[in-house]
Give the backbone structure.
Amino acid sequence: MSKDRIYNQSMAKIADFSFDAQVADVFTDMIERSVPGYRAILTMIETLTEHYAQPGSNLYDLGCSLGGATLAMANGMNAENCTIYAVDNSSAMVERCRKIMQRSVHTCAGVHIDSADIREVEIADASVVVLNFTLQFIPQSDRFQLLEKICAGMRPGGVLILSEKVIFKDDHLDELLAGIHHDFKRAHGYSDLEISQKRSALENVLIPETIPTHRERLLSAGFSSVDVWFQCFNFMSMLAVK
Ligand SMILES: Nc1ncnc2c1ncn2[C@@H]1O[C@H](C[S@+](CC[C@H]([NH3+])C(=O)[O-])CC(=O)[O-])[C@@H](O)[C@H]1O
Ligand SMILES: O=C(O)C(=O)Cc1ccccc1
């Protein structure tokens, strides 16, 4: 696995973060060293898929990157005749994701990898939908419509797994948890320069919201039961059951 050194030299101008080839090449290392609980969440996506996948239904991994969650869904799949759709609009990610899936021969049957904008993708007959750290990159004005479309395309009893970086209304708690997240990154080998340059690159690209904002929007979008099932510092994952 290639090591993420993208922000380790001082940059005169910091461009907006994008999911290009440079990021795709180091993405697994980047997300594992940046997101507390990322591996634990993937393991639980496997368990949740075992629980929620319904025979003959579709499963979606929206914003799949290199397919970490796609593989977890494929591994957890024990229902018959299901199809997994993994979607990302970064061609660099999709190319690499296809290669990774081909290497996992036993899981590639029934997995389709599509290069598309998740706002344009049809969701139909779904039992499990995953947005693992993807909604935070969608313009805020488009988030409700996307969640409404997902809910409308789901079977009753189906589940959406929504993982996000979050902010907190309480300023003290917000600064505290953001600071602890930086400590986590430092403990995983990132320098203060890398942390601060990446923070600038993400500033207008990754827009986190509060947990109550997510909860209320999911309920308005049509989900009937919504709550957090995992949290580590300012990263969390929610379940939304239709
Ligand atoms: N409109 C869009 N349409 C499609 N894809 C998009 C869009 N906007 C952003 N993306 C894609 O969403 C992914 C977000 S990363 C997901 C990790 C993965 N889920 C994982 O479990 O490893 C999270 C992170 O980097 O923090 C990137 O691959 C983008 O190209
Ligand atoms: O690195 C960060 O600070 C993050 O918030 C997580 C992240 C992980 C991978 C790509 C973009 C953001």
User: Anything to note?
Assistant: Residues 19, 31, 63-65, 68-69, 87-90, 93, 117-119, 132-134, 137-138 surround GEK (ligand 1) (CB under 6 Å). The first strand starts at residue 58 and ends at 62. The chain has a mean pLDDT of 97. DSSP finds nine helices and seven strands in the chain.
